[in-house]
Amino acid sequence: MKPGMADDSATSVRRPHLLRHFLIGFFTVAPLWITWLVFDFLFSLLARAGAPFMWGAARVVRPFSETLAGWLMNPAVQYVLAALFALAGLYAVGLLASAVLGRRLIGWLERQLERLPLVQTIYGGTKRFLQSLRKPPVTGQRVVLISFPTPEMKAVGFVTKVMRDETTGREVAAVYVPTSPNPTSGYIEIVPLDEVVQTDWSMEEAMSFVMTGGANAPDRVRFTPPRKTPPA
After folding, report:
1. β partners of residue 162
2. Nearest CA among 154, 161, 156, 200 for reference residue 178
3. Of the candidates 206, 215, 217, 212, which has an alpha carbon nearest to the alpha carbon of residue 177?
4. Residue ranges covered by each domain of the chain
5. In whole angstroms, what is the distance from residue 67 CA to residue 72 CA?
6. Is the pTM of this model over 0.70?
7. Would you call the peptide bond into 149 cis, given omega within 30 degrees of 0 as the criterion?
């Protein structure tokens, strides 16, 4: 056998070997990478929310310690401490909202926001959306499947409101369809309620399904709606 032919044979053997280990490495790192993306997104939001407190703290301590002020203004330190401050702030707001005085204070702030048209629209709409996800809907289940983006496909969605078609009287549902792995972005679809596939999933199960790209899914799912019984 010629030397060139031996080199070609060794190369062809190494290629599947390299590809196999590359795929093993990818599937090992991918869950960690997706987990990091989710946490990085959440921590970035918290860090931006808590950053003003860090700037204020740096200004307060600057006359006493320039070193400590510079340390507080370090981007890496700000990222961690700002997120911790934001988490502590959320916990404090939760405690405040659980008390009678806190609820009265929040109610007063909301009444002030109602005087600002654009702010009230955004704040009120966001609050109603989140409240709709916390409470079970009047009709059917909160987590459903709808035909999206084609009739042959199904997407996980959350029923946010049930309405009625003023022309036919048919009930229709406003369904929020989150995108994966970031459920904070998505689509709003208005779907006939009798074409929605009801599920027995909880909100936690549905969010886990979306954020993991369908990896955390039950073994069985009601993909096909039950057959309608013809009227007698």
Report:
1. 173
2. 156
3. 206
4. 1-98, 99-133, 138-211
5. 9
6. no
7. yes
| 51 vs 70: CA distance, rounded Å | 14
pLDDT at residue number 140:
56
Question: Do the beta carbons of residue 211 and residue 38 sit within 8 Å?
Answer: yes
CATH 3.40.50 fits 138-211, yes or no: no
Q: What is the pLDDT of residues 139-156, one digit of tens each?
A: 556 889 999 888 888 999
Q: CA 154 to CA 223: how far, in whole Å?
A: 7
